[in-house]
């Protein structure tokens, strides 16, 4: 178990020393110069009853988007094939809402089996689960479940009031009970302090088992949401969070997720040096735009980074 004092000391280390130490941890636990790419498809979009201050899908935010559902399994499989052709080794499916809609849950379960036959890893995010649903996902062969804690326990109710962070942890524990790997992280730049960021990463590191994949998002400020005018996170603080995550969770894969579209190539390169080795590729992340694939592939080439191959390559 890591202590808050230790995590703060690491975070406050001089910047160049911090990212150097994080880089050493990374190359000792992961394949150097390899980037894992995932693609995310929103199977159910909009109409969510939660009040997450950052999300356009919430019916409680002023920004309204129409509810859309993909019920055609063939369309999902076509999206997975396209993702694989772009270089993704993992295909992720997301549904809006506090809990899964039973009809959509069945579609996603069928999709998991079909996507795995393509040689891709599978990941889904569908909110809070009950044990029978976790068992079904396990029987389908699901590899990863994404369930972010979003921020520190202390700052959580300033962002979300319709669920608690303890509920998030309970679902994570339930998934780990059935050996489904966890992808969990948070969003930086929602008005929280560096202490909040440290506490969020410490929470993840001190779970019964740290997440196999840690997703670090930079807030995308969406018009109509309550966080549309918050100040941007300092880029160096963002990199410090990547480095701290790498040191606290040496075996986890650190992913730069939402917000890469607004990051310079130089900032992304610093993140990769500090321990990030995973990205999303594709046009969208649920409702927000993502960095364009040609730009990503060009950056990988310029940095001499290689995309991780899919299971069948």
Named CATH architecture: Alpha-Beta Barrel
The number of helical elements comes to: 10
The CATH topology annotation reads as TIM Barrel
Average pLDDT: 91
Total DSSP E strands: 13
CATH level 4 superfamily: Aldolase class I
Shape: globular
Q: What order do the helices and strands follow?
A: HHEEHEHEHEHEEHEHEHEEEHE
Largest sheet: 11 strands, mixed
Highest CATH level, the class: Alpha Beta
What's the helical proportion of residues? 25-40%
Number of domains: 1
Query: How big is the Rg?
Result: 18 Å
- What share of the residues does DSSP label as strand, in percent? 15-25%
Unreliable stretches covering 5 or more consecutive residues? none
| Structural class by sheet pairing and helices | alpha/beta
Distance between the termini: 38 Å
List the defining traits of the structure above.
single chain; 313 residues; alpha/beta; TIM Barrel; eleven-stranded mixed sheet; 10 helices
């Amino acid at each position: 178990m890591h202590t808050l004092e230790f995590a703060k000391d690491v975070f406050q280390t001089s910047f160049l020393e911090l990212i150097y130490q994080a880089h050493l941890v990374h190359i000792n636990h992961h394949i150097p110069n390899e980037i894992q790419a995932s693609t995310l498809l929103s199977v159910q979009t909009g109409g969510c009853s939660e009040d997450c201050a950052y999300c356009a899908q919430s019916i409680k935010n002023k920004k309204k988007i129409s509810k859309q559902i993909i019920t055609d399994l063939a369309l999902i499989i076509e999206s997975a094939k396209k993702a694989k052709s772009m270089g993704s080794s993992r295909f992720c499916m997301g549904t809006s809402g506090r809990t899964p809609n039973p009809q959509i849950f069945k579609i996603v379960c069928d999709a998991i089996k079909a996507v795995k036959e393509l040689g891709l890893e599978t990941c889904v995010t569908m909110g809070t689960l009950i044990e029978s649903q976790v068992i079904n996902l396990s029987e389908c062969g699901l590899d990863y479940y994404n369930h972010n804690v979003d921020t520190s326990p202390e700052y959580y109710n300033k962002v979300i009031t319709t669920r608690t962070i303890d509920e998030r942890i309970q679902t994570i524990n339930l998934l780990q009970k059935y050996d489904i790997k966890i992808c969990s992280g948070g969003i930086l730049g929602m008005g929280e302090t560096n202490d909040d960021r440290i506490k969020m990463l410490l929470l993840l590191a001190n779970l019964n088992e740290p997440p196999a994949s840690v997703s670090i998002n930079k807030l995308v400020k969406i018009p109509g949401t309550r966080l549309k005018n918050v100040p941007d996170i300092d880029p160096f603080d963002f990199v410090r969070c990547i480095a701290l995550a790498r040191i606290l969770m040496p075996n986890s894969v650190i992913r730069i997720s939402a917000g890469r579209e607004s990051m310079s190539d130089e900032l992304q390169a610093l993140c990769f040096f500090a321990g990030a080795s995973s990205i999303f590729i594709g046009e969208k992340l649920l409702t927000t735009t993502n960095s364009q694939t040609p730009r990503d592939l060009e950056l990988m080439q310029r940095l001499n980074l290689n995309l991780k191959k899919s299971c069948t390559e």
